[in-house]
Each structure stands twice: as C-alpha cells, then as structure tokens.
C-alpha cells in the first residue's frame, strides 16, 4: 500500500512539475517572435538547469534507491531548460550573451564535478549524502526565488505579478514531492519540497487576501523597483521582467 502511494505521488509530482517547466514557453515564444530577449533574464533558466541536473543525478539507482521518478521529471526538465537557455543565448545582446554563456559553462562544470566526484571517489551512503546535499541546497534556493514576488504583492497589495495557476501548481508540486519523500523516508526529497510546499501555500494565501486588488498595484510597481534575487539585472521595473522572474523561478523542483 505504501509503495503504491509512493508511486502515485511521484507520478502526480511529475505531472505538476512538467506544467511548471512548460510555463515559460509563452515567454520564449515572444522572444523568438521578436528576435530579442528584451528585459527578460536568462539567469533563472540556467540555475534551474543546474537544479534539474543535480536532482536527476541524485535520483539514479546507483546514487539513491527508489527515486527513479525523481530522475524522470528532472531529466525531462533539464532538457527543457537546456532548450530555453539556448534560445536565450541566440537572441540575447552581446553583453548578456557573454554573461549567460559564462554561467552556463559554470553550471555544466559544477555538475560534471559533482558527478565525477560521486562516481570515482565516493561509494554507498557517502555518495548519496554528497549528491543529496548538493541537490537539496539548489532546490531550496530555487524554491525561495519567488520571495521577491511575494514581497511585491505585500507592498502593493496586488496580485498583478503573481499568476494564480503558477502559485497553485508550485504548491501542488512541492506537496506531492514532500509526501513522496516522506513515504520513501528520504530527507533530501521531503525537506526541500516541504519548504517549497510551505512557500506555495503562502503564495496562495496572499493571492486570496489580495485577489480583489488585482491590477490596482500596477502603477506602484511601475514607479518602484523590486530588488531582484537574480544578479545582474537592470534597475528598470517592467511587468514582463516580473513575469519572467515568476515563470523562471517557479519552475518545477524536486
């Protein structure tokens, strides 16, 4: 019975995470049509790629047992994020392209180092601890990224820049993997996703508190810059930038 429930929550987590991974497609379709990255940032997608690669590696049977569903969704997510990053690099201006290429190279180097160290130098439970810790740390960082959007909602008393369905699926995704981790007794899955589930719940609470004010805070957002969790962004406030951060930061995590 427990094994069945474990699989069910893992499959549901795959579905909800896939929705979050595909959410930025609207942003990238706009980039392709305009042949410009405009004010969008590529940083969330590169960092989400790293998170997916580390979680994919952790879920493999020779690293941790009974976590293959973690690998399937994160392997898929890594492929999707890789495409996003390539599109961004193609259409980004020269300065931004150089920055993203450098970050992209760091991500691939860091992942390769984790994979090689775990394969060649570590074995058994030590390998699981090393890979699990690396994956959990970046997963928590990714889950914490929407805090800037929540701060915007509280300050403006408007949910203009916090789409309901993204918040809902962030909550459902985190909750699914939290329960999956509990059933599998894996702290590297349930701790970070418990954090993500809690943040998703807070976003939903904020949405229902300020839902009637949707759009009323737009002018204030246009006149006040939100401090971004991303490094290297310009100070120019922009609705599309906020939506880009929300879409990028709320990609599926495991």
TrEMBL record:
Q: GO molecular function of the protein, one example? A: sugar transmembrane transporter activity
| Signal peptide interval | none
Question: What is an example of a Pfam family matching this protein?
Answer: MtN3_slv
Q: Which Gene3D superfamilies match?
A: 1.20.1280.290
GO cellular component terms listed in the entry, alphabetical order: plasma membrane
Cellular compartments annotated: Cell membrane
Q: Which GO terms describe its biological process?
A: protein homooligomerization
Name the source's superkingdom. Answer: Eukaryota
* Keywords tagged on the record: Cell membrane, Membrane, Repeat, Sugar transport, Transmembrane, Transmembrane helix, Transport
Regions that span the bilayer: 6-31, 43-60, 72-93, 100-123, 129-149, 161-183, 189-210
First-listed, main subcellular location of the protein, grouped into a coarse class? membrane
Per UniProt, what is the membrane topology?
Multi-pass membrane protein
Q: What does this protein do?
A: Mediates both low-affinity uptake and efflux of sugar across the membrane.
Family designation: Belongs to the SWEET sugar transporter family.
For this entry, the protein name equals: Bidirectional sugar transporter SWEET
What taxonomic classification does the UniProt entry list for its organism?
A: Eukaryota, Viridiplantae, Streptophyta, Embryophyta, Tracheophyta
């Amino acid at each position: 019975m427990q094994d069945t429930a474990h699989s069910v929550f893992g499959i549901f987590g795959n579905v909800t995470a896939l929705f979050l991974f595909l959410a930025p497609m609207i942003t990238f379709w706009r980039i392709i049509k305009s042949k410009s990255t405009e004010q969008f940032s590529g940083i969330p997608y590169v960092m989400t790629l790293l998170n997916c690669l580390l979680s994919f590696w952790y879920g493999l049977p020779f690293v941790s047992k009974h976590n293959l569903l973690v690998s399937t969704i994160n392997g898929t997510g890594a492929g999707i994020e890789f495409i996003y990053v390539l599109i961004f690099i193609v259409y980004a201006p020269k300065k931004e392209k150089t920055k993203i290429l450098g970050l992209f190279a760091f991500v691939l180097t860091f992942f390769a180092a984790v994979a090689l160290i775990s394969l060649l130098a570590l074995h058994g439970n030590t390998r699981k601890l090393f890979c699990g810790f690396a994956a959990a740390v970046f997963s928590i960082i990714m889950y914490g990224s929407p805090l800037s959007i929540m701060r915007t909602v509280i300050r403006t008393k408007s949910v203009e820049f916090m789409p309901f369905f993204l918040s809902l699926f962030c909550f459902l995704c985190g909750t699914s993997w939290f329960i999956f981790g509990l059933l599998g007794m894996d702290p590297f899955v349930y701790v970070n996703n418990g954090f993500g589930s809690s943040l998703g719940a807070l976003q939903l609470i904020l949405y229902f508190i300020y839902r009637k004010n949707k759009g009323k805070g737009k002018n204030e957002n246009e006149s006040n810059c939100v401090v971004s969790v991303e490094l290297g962004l310009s100070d120019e406030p922009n609705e599309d930038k906020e939506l880009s951060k929300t879409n990028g930061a709320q990609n599926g995590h495991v």
